[in-house]
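Q: Got a minute? One more chain.
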Amino acid sequence: MYGTIVPTWHALVGTMIIVTTLLCNASAQSLSAAGATDDVEIGIVQFGIDGGITLSDFHAPGSHAEQYTSRVSFHVGIAGRIVLTEHFALHGNLQYNRRGAVRQSDFDSRLFRLDFLEFSPMLTIRRPWSNGICPYLSAGAVLAWNVNALVDVEHGRIAETLRLTDIRSFNPGITLELGLEFGLARRLLIIGIGYHFFPLSIQRGSDPTTELGNEDLSVRLYILY
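A: Always. Here it is, folded:
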């Protein structure tokens, strides 16, 4: 069952939170010493584009013999942000994300290609520094809709098919992100590291349903106006 699946990157997510906490504490001391305040406009709404590199992986229950390794791909999309206060903002993005994983066996290597349209609403905690750089931590939900599915078999003896209807179409999950904001005139450049996780079901014909955990680590670049 899916309950046996545990994300292997939980330690990394914990590290992300610890690092952001340390950055926020350091920035608070810096601001206090310098007497500086953030000059961001409260209530401002910004829109822009985002994109980056995605490292995606599957995790099967322990009883399954399949061994999955990560797939490197990309994501692109649009993003928006509403500044609520000096330290809080609402952030959202709509992305096309190419996910999947490679399943290795004694006979062949099979690349699972799963493409998703994802919407991620997040609450952002930010701590401005005096030099215009602002570390942040965002947490929220990811709502993923499967839009493409196929399998590439390398040196395989047996072909394998994967149809879009074999994948559960709607997959909700969680997302975390940390990074730095750089204020450039009326533009905002954001560089972050993000983490997504959601359960994924594959059902082909009369075969038993395969429950997987789909998670990814991504490097994200935003440009907002």
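A: The chain has a mean pLDDT of 79.
Q: Perfect, thanks.
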